[in-house]
Amino acid sequence: MDVVVLRWPEEEERRTALRTLRRPRLLLLEDDRAPPVTVDPLEDWIRLPAGDDDVRARLAALEQRTPEEPGPEIDEHGVLRHRGRWVALAPVELALARTLLEHFMTVVSRDVLSRRAWPQGAPRRNALDVQILRLRRRVGGVGLEIQTVRSRGYLLQPAANSP
Predict the structure, then answer these.
(1) What pTM does this model have?
(2) Is 73-158 CATH 2.40.280.10?
């Protein structure tokens, strides 16, 4: 998959759209602008002017980090599909899964997940823990896993033992 080159911050909206699509991006920074905070392995930035060798090296690194197969997707019926397998999700699981997929392979805080699953507030103190446990069991069947990142949140990624 080709790496998309963007100017930062002029093309911030396009950056967001490409992130959702899991497309690799190289951001070009001009002047003394602050670089964006990025934890996405499919994104990097470089300050201009930059040498051709430096730009090529960043592009090559992004291409190597880009998965060759398409990532997981949720269809319009609330079905999570990955690697030719699928699982139907309950409404709260669906809200959590969509949020984790928007940030695939990056950490999502407990607060963000709770707000997305229960906009009016979680019904119980441990409601998120219970739903994450249920979602873990479901996504395991399609080759995904949810890792707990202590004091930060949760991370959805391909399962280590999945083909």
Answers:
(1) 0.61
(2) no
